[in-house]
Amino acid sequence: MRTDSPDSTAPREASSARQRFALAAAFAGLWLIGLGVLSFLSANPITLNREQVLSATDVLTAVVEEPRAETVRVEKSWKGAVSEDRLALSNLQATNPRAGDRLLIPVSRSRGGWRVTLSKLPNEPPLVYPATAESEGQLRQLLKAGR
């Protein structure tokens, strides 16, 4: 009696199809994981507004002390125009800061003192930026190129 009937190849073909499907599913899973890692690492990069930074009288690295009183403690004056250790910024509250936030703040003189420099974006609040190594590096490049 013969055991290799034409139907005996069907289990091998089904097994091969399952292996191809498992390989494709594994590849798709790895691809999705890779996309997730890329989006996590590159999501929402900080981009300084070039026009705002260059038109500002100074750019400060400062820590928000009292958001309602709109006061900051100045750590660094990047252009050297501000010499005060503490500064009141008339429109700081529009940026929704929290006490303790360490920020890069473009500032300009106003009639009553200092304010956060407005950007040229219509109907937008003034822009401030988290003070990180990345944002400070961008600021160095902008100030160097803008001279």
What does this structure look like?
With 147 residues, the chain is of the alpha+beta class. The chain has 2 domains: 10-41; 50-146, OB fold (Dihydrolipoamide Acetyltransferase, E2P), CATH 2.40.50. 36% of the residues lie in helices and 23% in strands. The protein has 3 helices and 6 strands. It has helices spanning 10-42, 50-55, 133-146; strands at residues 58-66, 71-77, 86-88, 102-110, 113-116, 129-130. Strands 1, 2, 3, 4, 5 and 6 form a 6-stranded antiparallel β-sheet that branches. A hairpin with an 8-residue loop joins strand 2 (71-77) and strand 3 (86-88). The chain starts with 9 loop residues before the first helix and ends with a helix. The model has no long low-confidence stretch (mean pLDDT 89).
Provide a concise account of the structure shown.
This protein is an alpha+beta fold and 147 residues long. It is built from three helices and six strands, in the order H-H-E-E-E-E-E-E-H. The protein folds into two domains: 10-41; 50-146, OB fold (Dihydrolipoamide Acetyltransferase, E2P), CATH 2.40.50.
Low-pLDDT residue intervals, each spanning 5 or more residues: none
N to C succession of SSEs: HHEEEEEEH
Helix content estimate: 25-40%
What is the alpha-carbon Rg in Å?
29 Å
Q: Please, what is the average pLDDT?
A: 89
Label the structural class: alpha+beta
Overall structural domain count: 2
Would you identify the CATH architecture of the largest domain? Beta Barrel
- Describe the global form: elongated
What's the CATH C level of the largest domain? Mainly Beta
**If you consult CATH, what is the topology of the largest domain?**
OB fold (Dihydrolipoamide Acetyltransferase, E2P)
Indicate the proportion of strand residues.
Answer: 15-25%
